[in-house]
Automatic annotation (TrEMBL):
Protein name stated in the entry: Formate dehydrogenase subunit alpha
Boundaries of every 4Fe-4S Mo/W bis-MGD-type domain copy: 6-66
Keyword Zinc-finger part of the UniProt annotation: no
Keyword terms: 4Fe-4S, Iron, Iron-sulfur, Metal-binding, Oxidoreductase, Repeat
Region (Disordered) location: 567-588
An example Gene Ontology molecular-function term: formate dehydrogenase (NAD+) activity
Location of this fragment in the whole protein: 248 to 950 of 958
Organism: Halomonas tibetensis
Positions of transmembrane segments: none
Family note: In the C-terminal section; belongs to the prokaryotic molybdopterin-containing oxidoreductase family.
EC number: 1.17.1.9
Length: 703
């Protein structure tokens, strides 16, 4: 039987933060080598055998004909920038193949030359939440120790940076307080600014299961979604009206005395100030901004506050705003006011996006903090890492993703190393970001394909795909999980940790890691969050949740029942004021543009658009509009529109979507041929430094 596998390897899905465990079934094919035939769900703690369409079918991208198998060097005189006629399958005209020796010498030599001419802060690094924990640790260590700069960031900045900022400020920890499986024990679950059936599909199955068992699901979002069918209440608020809605709910809880005074007295500080602050923010006052009727706001507040056990889940509909941190502060205040943390079936859970955005952040791929969120400005923290790494550390916090692009445009950052990230597709206001990237004097890109970003590179280093490497990743539930290499690397492609180490050695560092397990061992010396979690334990158990109290104990599914990890041990209420979006709609740009993901595609599409089944399912860019919008524009589905904002324009097909409101358009950001981020607004949340991807004023025109 040609479909019969010769062997199996257990690993983890490389896509979303749910972190489904899976088994690769591998055929030793005499003609094509070792290939993954199919994938099955494994009985992991976050999936119990379930997989979504990406996990099940998105495994063949490593075999795509455009896969990089040799290092590439830009040909002399070829200008940097996107080639509109770029065909990844055609022979490369802008680059030539090179040996590893030549490519690594050029990559590291260019970075070293810029450092010596302009100082450490002329260099920056973007890692990726697709990196394993060990790769993330090595990459941020290289930037801090080898470059001497803290300009290291990754896509957490575009995802939940505002949520993490609010959580750190209010409860002293950036991770979730309870796993999503706790929803099964909750009486009420609020899902807001998230669309789990699309973005966390296996988590969505737990929410459905909870609803079937009697949990009241409350969905608060500007768009409708598949989970509405399971919801007790589904409320579509006005885009950008979230802070108003949550403050009005807080007002009702205070006004009607629905708060939990005993919990507040025992575990929090600042409630009196919050009470005074929300006094004026009545449902009647907030209703015009959020578009929800006052009586409905009162009902929502009562449902949450009077539940015995309640949880709040949120996603990027909340975080990707100039008021993203305020949104998360409000949700935290709701939970604290009602005593809804620290017990089974209660908690705060920002659904993490990528498979390892939690782990890459924990490992320190963030400009202002060292691993485990320890500030680079803290001399004691720096001293501990200086001893561990035997190198001095820069005390100045680095720049964030969008700030680095601005610094390149301004000419202060001149060289970059980008690992697995695709900012030429994922950054807001792409015309600005791409112009900036073309200005870089030296760019090293490490990836699987000649991505949009790699087209700006001086050197491209062929890296390892997830099924080709050993490494750990940490999912949205704080579960550290082990992925195992299932198939060999193609051609001359190399493991990412090996490539980072080769750059480090050429920058004068004496690194000599032989395997990711040695990197993980070093991480356990610098990260208390990994106490009692070892590589050997993960080899045996596949998954351990942090924090973990003992070598043979399961980790904590629910945390902070006694105290919060703040200086006082108490959580803090932070009042917020409703603010308008950065770029409200007006007569010239009357429609709200919202960007996001599709079920079948992952982020910028570099992997899923090279997976045959997934690309067949969703092969081209589409804009989703409410039926009434199509009527207004005299369009039928399948016709084309041009969407224009103050920053750019794209043309794409329209699709009718009854889940959309009038006055809104939704565009996925994975299609290079109609790149949604040409349109998006780079305005930043002042605290989390996250751009406002979820609101841009646009104009729709029939083509
Ligand atoms: Fe992979 Fe997420 Fe789908 Fe699970 S839910 S199979 S982790 S993409």
């Amino acid at each position: 039987d040609s479909r019969a596998a010769d062997r199996t390897v257990d690993s983890v899905c490389p896509y979303c933060g749910v972190g489904c465990q899976l088994t690769y079934h591998i055929k030793d094919d005499p003609e094509h080598g070792e290939r993954i035939l199919f994938v099955e769900g494994r009985d992991g703690p976050s999936n119990q055998g379930r997989l979504c369409v990406k996990g099940r079918f998105g495994f063949d991208y490593p075999n795509h004909p455009a896969r990089l198998t040799r290092p590439l060097i830009r040909r002399p005189g070829v200008p940097k920038g996107l080639d509109p006629d770029f065909d990844p399958r055609a022979p490369l005209t802008h680059f030539r193949e090179a040996s590893w020796e030549e490519a690594l010498d050029l990559a590291a030599g260019g970075l070293a030359a810029l450092k010596s001419a302009h100082g450490p802060d002329a260099l920056a690094g973007f890692g990726s939440a697709k990196c394993s924990n060990e790769e993330a640790w090595l990459f941020q260590k290289l930037v801090r120790v080898g470059f001497g700069s803290n300009h290291v960031d990754h896509c957490t900045r575009l995802c939940h940076a505002s949520s993490v900022a609010a959580l750190m400020e209010c409860i002293g920890s950036g991770a979730v307080t309870a796993s999503f499986m706790q929803a099964l024990q909750a009486d009420v679950v609020i899902l807001t600014g998230c669309n789990p059936a699309i973005n966390h599909p296996v988590a969505a199955t737990y929410f459905k299961q909870a609803a079937r068992n009697g949990t009241k699901l409350i969905i608060l979002d500007p768009r409708g979604q598949a989970l509405d069918a399971y919801a007790h209440r589904s409320v579509r608020f006005t885009p950008g009206g979230d802070v108003s809605l949550y403050n009005a709910m807080l007002h009702v809880i205070v006004d009607e005395g629905l708060f939990d005074q005993a919990y507040i007295d025992a575990h929090t500080e600042g409630f009196e100030a919050l009470k005074a602050h929300v006094r004026e923010l009545t449902p009647e006052a907030m209703s015009p901004a959020c578009g929800v009727a006052p009586e409905q706001i009162r009902e929502l507040a009562r449902l949450y506050a009077t539940a015995d056990k309640a949880m709040i889940f949120w996603g990027m509909g909340i975080s990707q705003h100039v008021h993203g941190t305020d949104n998360a502060r409000c949700l935290i205040s709701l939970a604290l006011a009602c005593g809804q943390t620290g017990r089974p079936g209660t908690g705060l859970h920002p659904l993490r996006g990528q498979n390892n955005v939690q782990g890459a952040s924990d490992a320190g791929m963030i400009p202002m903090v060292l691993p485990d969120y320890q500030p680079v400005t803290d001399a004691q923290v720096r001293a501990a890492f200086e001893e561990l790494w035997n190198a001095p550390l820069n005390p100045t916090p680095g720049l964030t993703v969008v700030e680095i692009m601005d610094a390149i445009a301004a000419g202060t950052v001149k060289g970059m190393y980008i690992l697995g990230e695709n900012p030429a597709m994922s950054d807001p206001d792409l015309n600005h970001a791409r112009k900036a990237m073309a200005k870089l004097e030296h760019l090293v890109v490490q990836d699987l394909f000649v991505t949009e970003t790699a087209q700006f590179a001086d050197v491209i280093l062929p890296a390892s795909a997830w099924p080709e490497k050993d490494g750990t990743v940490t999912n949205t539930n704080r579960q550290v999980q082990l992925g195992r290499a299932a198939v060999p690397l193609p051609g001359e492609a190399k493991p990412d940790w090996w490539i980072i180490q080769q750059i480090a050695v050429r920058l004068g560092l004496d690194w000599d890691y032989q395997h990711p397990r040695e990197v993980f061992a070093e991480m356990t010396q610098g990260m208390a969050s990994l106490d009692h979690i070892s590589w050997e334990r993960l080899e045996r158990e596949s998954s351990v949740t942090y924090p973990c109290p003992a070598n043979d104990a399961p980790g904590a599914d629910v945390v902070f029942s006694e105290a919060f990890p703040t200086e006082s041990g108490r959580a803090r209420f932070t009042p917020t004021r409703p603010l308008p979006p950065d770029e409200p709609v007006d007569g010239d740009f009357p429609t709200v543009l919202i960007t996001g993901r599709q079920l079948e595609h992952w982020h910028t599409g570099s992997m899923t658009r090279r997976s045959r089944v997934l690309d067949d399912l969703e092969p081209e860019p589409v804009a989703s509009l409410a039926p009434a919008e199509l009527v207004r524009l005299r369009l039928t589905p399948g016709e084309h529109i041009t969407i224009t904002t103050r920053r750019g324009a794209i043309t794409l097909k329209v699709r009718v979507d009854p889940l959309m409101r009038e006055g809104m358009v939704f565009v996925p950001f994975c299609y290079g041929e109609a790149a949604a981020n040409l349109l998006t607004n780079p305005a930043l949340d002042p605290v989390g430094k996250i751009p406002e991807f979820k609101y841009a004023a646009c104009r729709l025109e029939r083509v």
